[in-house]
Write a structure and sequence with these properties.
The complex is a heterodimer of chains A (186) and B (166). With 186 residues, chain A is an all-beta fold. Chain A has one domain: Jelly Rolls, CATH 2.60.120. Helices cover 0% and strands 49% of the residues of chain A. Chain A contains no helices and 14 strands. By secondary structure, chain B is mainly beta. Chain B has one domain: Jelly Rolls (Sandwich), CATH 2.60.120. Chain B is built from no helices and twelve strands. Chain B has an eight-stranded antiparallel sheet with strand order 2-12-4-8-9-10-6-7, with no helix packed on it. A three-stranded antiparallel sheet of chain B has the order 3-11-5, with no helix packed on it. In chain B, strand 8 and strand 9 form a beta hairpin. Chain B starts with a strand and ends with a strand. Classes of the chains: A mainly beta (186), B mainly beta (166). Chains A and B meet through strand 1, strand 2, strand 3, strand 7 and strand 10 of A and strand 1, strand 2, strand 3, strand 6 and strand 7 of B.
Chain lengths: 186, 166
């Protein structure tokens, strides 16, 4: 680390507190894959929240493929989403209710070969058996055309503790080199 | 096996005026980087720009959306010489919190995507996505003032997020 051109001081974080953010699992794809599932999440009930960090693309030549999230294998119409979207020209907002998954992020495909969309998704209080599960997402990419930035929220209208999460695209497969990493937050 | 992470790699608090801060020789064992900064400036209108690996070519692209309290706005820029995440009104003089997440920064098979959030209670709230059009791993990161200097007390903290369970 260097500082130009004036003086500074540097300090490292102090210790004492327990670590509160842990990497739990990572999947880096070596071939195109239709869906990625994290199961056995009951083993992580000592964490308060989960975070998924995704860098991925779809195999289809689309500029709009949703990353859909299902909890506990539930494919009923028990989900809802809201989003705020910037497209480089204007800001829009959308929503959907009584749908079969959370449209938790958006991907692009081979028609925009330069960009890798990224998403940071928080699943709050996932192990509670007393409340519906809420998600929030920061997602976007800056391709040379059709760049996008999103803020999203999602609802699973079920009070069950989350024990598995499945991610799949609305169009195509996750391509090789896509990465999905799961973290626990205490 | 859980792997503790969100590790503080480096922390800088300015003791006096500085035009830039560079984090170099970034540990490549991490998957993502998170830069948290409160880049208070020496005068009105200074914006923090970010540059990767010292690349001054036109390889930076971004899109943003903002809310000012009375209106929303979205714009995009391509072929910039840094992530010049400029701000409506150009004010970065008051206390602001800028968080930039460099995703898969150590990968060499994809352009680096940055997701960012800017919180400036005086003016607006903003979110950004950016792309560095280069497949090199990010080994250094420089934050520089769009003009003049950052002020004493400006803080810059860099965190590493593991991607490999150990």
């Amino acid at each position: 680390m260097s500082l130009i051109p004036f003086g500074f001081w540097a300090a490292s974080g102090g210790g004492g507190a327990a670590n509160a953010y842990d990497l739990l699992e990572t999947t880096t794809l070596t071939s195109n894959t239709a869906s990625v599932t994290f199961s056995g999440l009951g083993d992580y009930s000592d964490y308060a929240h989960l975070q998924i960090r995704i860098v991925s693309r779809t195999s289809d030549a689309t500029t709009n493929a949703n990353i859909n999230l299902n909890f506990n294998g539930d494919t009923g119409t028990n989900y809802a989403t809201h989003d705020l979207e910037g497209n480089g020209t204007s800001v829009g907002s959308g929503s959907a209710a009584s749908i079969a998954n959370i449209r938790v992020a958006q991907n692009i495909g081979t028609s925009l070969a330069d960009a890798w969309p990224a998403a940071v998704i928080d699943i709050l209080d996932f192990s509670s058996g007393l409340k519906n599960t809420t998600t929030r997402t920061l997602n976007g990419w800056a391709s040379s055309s059709t760049p996008r930035i999103f803020l999203r929220s999602g609802l699973w209208n079920d009070t069950s503790a989350v024990t598995s999460m499945s991610f799949a695209l609305s169009s195509g497969d996750f391509i090789a080199a896509s990465r999905l990493s799961l973290y626990g937050v205490k | 096996m859980a792997t503790p992470t969100y590790d503080l790699l480096e922390s800088v608090t300015l003791a006096s005026l500085a035009s830039s801060v560079t984090f170099s020789s970034i540990d490549q064992s991490y998957g993502d980087l998170i830069l948290v900064m409160n880049p208070i400036a020496s005068s009105v209108g200074i914006t923090p720009y970010t540059r990767l690996n010292g690349d001054t070519g036109g390889n930076y692209n971004w899109v943003r959306m903002t809310g000012s309290g009375s209106s929303t706005e979205s714009s995009a820029q391509a072929s910039r010489t840094s992530f010049d995440f400029s701000y409506p009104g150009g004010r970065n003089d008051s206390s602001t919190l800028f968080i930039q997440q460099f995703m898969d920064f150590s990968a060499t098979d994809k352009h680096t995507t940055v997701l960012a959030r800017h919180n400036n209670p005086s003016d607006a709230v903003a979110a950004y996505a950016g792309r560095w059009a280069n497949t090199s791993a990010v080994t250094s990161l420089t934050i520089f003032a769009s003009f003049s200097n950052f002020a004493a007390g400006a803080t810059f903290n860099l965190y590493g997020i593991a991607k490999t369970v150990v």
